[in-house]
């Protein structure tokens, strides 16, 4: 299962038919793939190629038997794991760390870590989000240590009671911020404006012109917004850097 724009999709049968290969989907199995999906797919692609994959919408998971999906596990209670509890697990034989709000039990993973045990033990019982994200891609936990996630950071207070009513339209899971699908109403208008503005020169010559224009935009957007720039009459270094980026 994957989540796209608030929809829960069962793509098991679609894996072999996916033009980009199975791995592209399996990388986000059990996760929210909205951001990555929208970067490379038009908004109507699910309806066209996998209309039967949608099995529900993201939500609180509360309600009666009608709101549950067959085969879905029961939701657990509780309000998460407190940082005080995480702090107790700070040894080589019992090592927990926090990354992006997730509590990880990495005791068994210590010996397998490519960067060595000490790199993890330094943050045993603590939040390692900032340092972790500086050197790791966002999907590394799901790829190499998916079983390490044991819960999420929270207050430890009991969870609120589920809603008393459900139904086929009742949401399945709660993931803040993703219950609302993106507004694509301006998508076509923006595309037309973009094509009218940058599609006037046709053929390979037009492609070359817009490629050069794109390079120049990237150079300007890279240099101009920097806060540590000191304006002076010496443009040699700036010009050399710009030309180097433009050529190579």
Structure description:
By secondary structure, this protein is of the alpha+beta class. Helix content is 34%, strand content 10%. The protein has helices at 22-26, 34-40, 45-49, 83-87, 117-121, 129-135, 140-144, 187-198, 203-223, 236-247, and strands spanning 2-4, 7-9, 54-57, 90-91, 94-99, 102-105, 149-152. The strands form two sheets. A four-stranded antiparallel β-sheet has the order 4-5-6-7.
Write down the secondary-structure element order. EEHHHEHEEEHHHEHHH
Mean pLDDT: 74
So what's the overall shape? flat
Number of helices: 10
Please indicate the percent range of residues in DSSP E strands (runs of 2 or more): 5-15%
How is the main sheet built?
4 strands, antiparallel
Low-pLDDT windows of residues: 62-77, 161-181
Give a count of the beta strands, DSSP E runs of length 2 or more: 7
Decide which structural class fits the backbone: alpha+beta
Distance between the termini: 42 Å
Provide the gyration radius in Å.
24 Å
């Amino acid at each position: 299962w994957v989540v796209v724009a608030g929809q829960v999709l069962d793509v098991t049968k679609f894996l072999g038919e996916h033009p980009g290969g199975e791995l592209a989907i399996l990388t986000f199995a059990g996760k929210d793939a909205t951001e990555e999906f929208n970067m490379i797919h038009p908004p109507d692609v699910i309806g066209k190629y996998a209309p039967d994959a949608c099995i529900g919408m993201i939500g609180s998971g509360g309600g009666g038997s009608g709101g549950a999906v067959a085969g879905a596990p029961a939701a657990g209670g509780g309000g998460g794991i407190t940082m005080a509890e995480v702090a107790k697990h700070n040894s080589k034989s019992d090592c927990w760390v926090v990354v992006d709000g997730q509590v990880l039990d990495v005791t068994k993973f210590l010996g397998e870590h490519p960067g060595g045990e000490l790199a993890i033990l330094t943050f045993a019982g603590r939040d390692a989000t900032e340092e972790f994200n500086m050197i790791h891609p966002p999907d590394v936990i799901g790829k190499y240590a998916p079983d390490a996630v044991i819960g999420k950071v929270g207050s430890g207070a009991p969870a609120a009671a589920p809603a008393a009513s459900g139904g086929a339209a009742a949401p399945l899971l709660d993931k803040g911020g993703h219950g609302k699908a993106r507004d694509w109403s301006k998508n076509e208008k923006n595309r037309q404006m973009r094509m009218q503005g940058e599609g006037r020169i046709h053929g390979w010559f037009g492609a070359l012109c817009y490629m050069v224009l794109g390079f120049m935009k990237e150079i300007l957007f890279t240099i101009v917004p920097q806060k540590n720039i000191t304006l002076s009459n010496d443009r040699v270094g700036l010009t050399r850097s710009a030309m180097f980026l433009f050529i190579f």
